[in-house]
Amino acid sequence: MTYNDEKLDVLAIAAHPDDVELACGGIVCKMVDDGYRVGIVDLTRGELGTRGTPELRDQESEHATAILGIHARENLGLPDGNIENNLETRKKLIRSIRRYRPDLLLANAPEDRHPDHGAAARLAIDARFFSGLKKIETRSDGGDVQDPWRPAHLLHYIQAIELEPTFVVDVSATWERRMKAMMAYASQFHTPERERENEPQTFISSSAFKEWIESRAKSLGYRIGAAYGEGLIYHHGPIGVDDIVACLGKDRIA
Question: Residue 2: inside a domain, yes or no?
Fold first, then answer.
């Protein structure tokens, strides 16, 4: 995956290459369309996945990246199924945070059916904090000592387990593109071609999974008066507000 050292506004952390597209692809597309610079750091290559291969998922990730329109993406190559929160893994993620200097981090759900997701969330939380400490030294690819950087905010996207969101974002305008980016991971989903190859069924390979994703987005959207919505959980409460009228200015169904 390609990356550059230009500052990003938002950096999404994902345990697996398709986590962002599955959970908050509409939000990422909307941020890009709103003019924000957005990147993704995938922690593993998803090599333990039942369907597909790491090489195929690399190709699918590149395809999804182009659809999302994000500005940077990289993969840290941590072991799938064994995301440890230790000095070595924290430093790897800290290097990426300091490289991109985002103001906002998106991270995996704090609780989910896949153990890697909660582990990735905890790693992101800790790396965000330690990235701001000057005495933890990391170096760029060129060998220069990186400056400390701590993103101001961290938000968790919601995955398989239904968690109550702090925010619901209207993603109606980007829904079709978001679904196209998700379906770029064709090896993971139900398609007539792949089913003829008798691939094993998984949690997301059923044809019902796509319907569930859409149903949840419609349900969240309904709660805010939108066609489709995606939820985020704010890690650092409470939230400071300067203008409560402007903050609550969006119309909603009473």
Answer: no
**E strand or H helix at 110, and its extent?**
none
**pLDDT tens figures, 84-123:** 999 999 999 999 999 999 999 999 999 999 999 999 999 9
**At CB < 8 A and 24+ separation, what contacts does 185-188 make?**
185/17, 185/18, 185/21, 185/52, 185/57, 185/60, 185/61, 185/64, 186/60, 187/51, 187/52, 187/53, 187/56, 187/57, 187/60, 188/18, 188/49, 188/51, 188/52
Alpha helices in 69-132 (DSSP H): 87-100, 115-130
Model confidence, pTM:
0.93
CATH code of the domain covering residue 240: 3.40.50.10320
Name the H helices within the chain. 19-33, 54-68, 87-100, 115-130, 175-182, 192-196, 207-223, 244-247
Q: How many domains does the chain have?
A: 1
What confidence tens digit (pLDDT) does each residue in 164-218 have? Answer: 999 999 999 999 999 999 999 988 887 666 555 667 788 888 888 999 999 999 9
